[in-house]
Write a structure and sequence with these properties.
With about 475 residues, the protein is mainly α. It has 23 helices and four strands. It starts with a helix and ends in a 9-residue tail after the last strand.
Amino acid sequence: MKIIPGLRTLRSDFIRTAAWILCAVAIFVFLVASAEVLRTNAIFDYGEGVVLNLAKNLMDKGTYFFDINHPPFIHGVYPPIFPLLISLAWHSAPPLLFGRLLSFVAALASAFVLYKLLRGKIAAEPSAQLAIIFLTSWFMISFAPILRIDTLAVFLSLVGIYCFLNLGSRFWISGPIFILAFYTKQTAIIAPIAVLLCLAAGQNWKKLGVFSASYLLPLAVSFFTINAATAGQFALHLFTYNNIALNWTHIWGGYAAFSLSCLPLFALLVLNSGKKELSFFHIYFFLSFLSLFSFAKPGASSNYFIEPLAALILLIGYLLSADQRSSVLGKSYLRTEIFFSAQLILSMLVFFNFLASPLSPPKPTQEMVIREINNAPPGEILSEEIGYLVLAGKDVHLEPFQFSRLAKEGRWDDSPLIKDCEASKFSLVWAGPRILSLPNLAGCLNRFYARQTLPGGYFLYTKKSAPPSASL
């Protein structure tokens, strides 16, 4: 059955208009959600406090890679670039807001670089829509405006890819940029590995040698230099203490969550598969998807989905390139617009149904604890949310999440911490699931400290009053 030309044009205009309306709605949601985070001083994510603490130690002590068997009990879980940027601006801008803005701007910049990469393959309109899909995915809405390292690492990886693919004989510039990505997040090695494999597969040995000289050699030299300067603690913190036993439930849960979250994009990928020969984009997506294996790590969240989504979008752009340049009104393009729209709708549904939730711990609990921390008498303070200690100018004696995990795995002896507890060295302890998961510490607190119950299943411990002296 033939469609009247006027009706075909009307249908095309309707589909395109609907897709752009959805893009506009998604951008609006992204901006409103980001503004909600940026305008508050509340800690939205435990990782914010972790990064703030690393930045403060870097500023005060020049390092945060300490021996974990002696206080302060801090795990340098991330490389130094993001904490360094915050520490440099510590006295000229509010550190929490500065770190959040840094992450937010990196998210916007990542979407722009993604658009530029796509624009080299397909028309401006689908390139822009795919970049918007990336920026407004529910996991980008969740992590772009909070103080986390992920968006900056992805931005640097995408810039490195752009330099490799578009700078001709100066492709080697991608090497130093990939090194910056590694020192932002130690798992940001997927893109350079894809470059190495692509060059090796194409038997381009000269370019492989040049890239290795610009990436592998300086990375190895800098890594071993920093590791020697920190007496081996650099590698221990970034890798050894991050090693975890495999949890297949977490692993398959991560793969399932990402795949279901990107179902329309995967459908589009399948429909266009086989149209192109093996490329860098195939390798990059395969490695990125494989990296979801690291979802087994305790505390892993949807921030692990950001780079695989970027890789998936780049591969889709590459596969669409055979069709999209010729006509933005063809059947293939309209079908693509429908899948784009479905992806935008899915992201919004996930965000509003599962993520637009109140703070945890409850806001009244956080406000009360902040007051108690600011007014605490001299002495060490343990806090369920270490970010509030840092913002109050207090030192962090214990990073509870990582050390409770290390204790459970038998890789950390908590006896020095328990001795401090028994000696009543803590002037205040705000305890919740993380601190109370250290059984020896929980038992000690209940024996030697007075406990006050807070909303949300949290407790405030203070020193017990000394018993009155006996009369003679």
